[in-house]
Write a structure and sequence with these properties.
Number of strands: 5
CATH topology of the largest domain: Oxidized Rhodanese, domain 1
Strand content: 5-15%
Number of helices: 9
Order of helices and strands: HHHHEHEHEHEHEH
CATH class of the largest domain: Alpha Beta
Length: 183
């Protein structure tokens, strides 16, 4: 899948929709977007944000964001591929990051709610070739968790693209979809 076209005129909201890991990448490399002093508004352009944050060249930032997005895509699994693997009986560990209430309301069969204890067990006893899929609601938090698991000697970890919402929409229509409403 080709990367979306992003320019210095792209708003930060558009950037984050196109590249869900953009905020993480910007903070990791440029200290942009991770705290109050370097935060940004959704309607600001990438060029404006760069300008007021020590002015890294927009072309350099764009190249880095595209590189980071390619890496993010390499650690994702799309809903249809996951469904195919599950239907074929693949030996996968499905770890769900959502709240207990969300998990109890709707879940993929054989998935487990990720608790601190389960995470410690995974890092301490699972073989390095264990295939792990991280699930959240919309796919954004799962990327961070998958990178964390990969960094803790579980390199076969993937994040479910679009989360359980995309899985219910695109791969398993028996699962109910829901929205998260924040106050």
């Amino acid at each position: 899948m080709p990367s979306p076209t992003i320019t210095g005129a792209t708003t930060m909201a558009e950037l984050q929709r196109a590249l869900p890991g953009a905020r993480r990448s910007l903070f990791a490399r440029y200290h942009i977007g991770g705290c109050q002093s370097c935060g940004f508004e959704d309607d600001e352009t990438l060029a404006a944000v760069c300008e007021r944050n020590e002015a890294p060249p927009v072309a350099e930032v764009l190249a880095y964001l595209q590189e980071s997005a390619a890496h993010d895509r390499s650690i994702q699994i799309d809903p249809a591929e996951l469904k195919t693997k599950l239907d074929a009986g693949a030996d996968l560990k499905l770890l769900d990051l959502r709240s207990r209430e969300e998990f109890d309301a709707v879940k993929i069969a054989d998935s487990q709610l990720l608790t601190t204890e389960l995470q410690q067990q995974a890092f301490g006893t699972w073989e390095s070739d264990t295939q792990v899929v991280i699930i959240d609601h919309s796919g954004d938090r799962a990327l961070d968790a998958a990178a964390f698991f990969i960094g803790h000697s579980l390199p076969e970890t993937r994040a479910l693209t679009g989360g359980i919402d995309a899985y219910a929409r695109d791969a398993d229509h028996s699962l109910r979809r829901y929205r998260i409403e924040l106050d």
